[in-house]
Fold this sequence. Notes:
globular, five-stranded antiparallel β-sheet, alpha+beta
Amino acid sequence: MNKFFKSIMVALSLLAFSLTANAADKGTADEAVAMVKKAGEFLKKNGKEKAFAEFNNPKGQFIKGDLYIFTFLANGDGIEQANGANPKLVGKNVSEMKDADGKFLIKDILAAGMSKEGKGWVDYKWPNPATGKIDGKRTYVERVDDVLIGCGIYK
């Protein structure tokens, strides 16, 4: 085998490995729901202050691959209480935030969590940090007492 062929094979092997690793980091719908449920149990057991601190902890148990927890109060004010991916949003009213198509995604997330069912999925378009492109994203939100807990996945 010549050097060029060996180099190509090594490069292809590394590419295949990195694609597999990226796919493994991509959360599934079941994992998002499970993380929301786990966050809800943590909230019930520990209270809002401790739960929000843990949800915001970049090395905490509520950030895994591209999955992270975010929260709002179930009063519809749109003020983010926790965000594992972007702590700069915490304490800010993000209710007017729009997706790439101009959809008010936060208003839809709040509506799903504050609905009679108290849970649901919201679809929107969002920048994917792994690809640098606008991708479809789907967020699961569930109301736990007076807190809306969400977690999203890229499609």
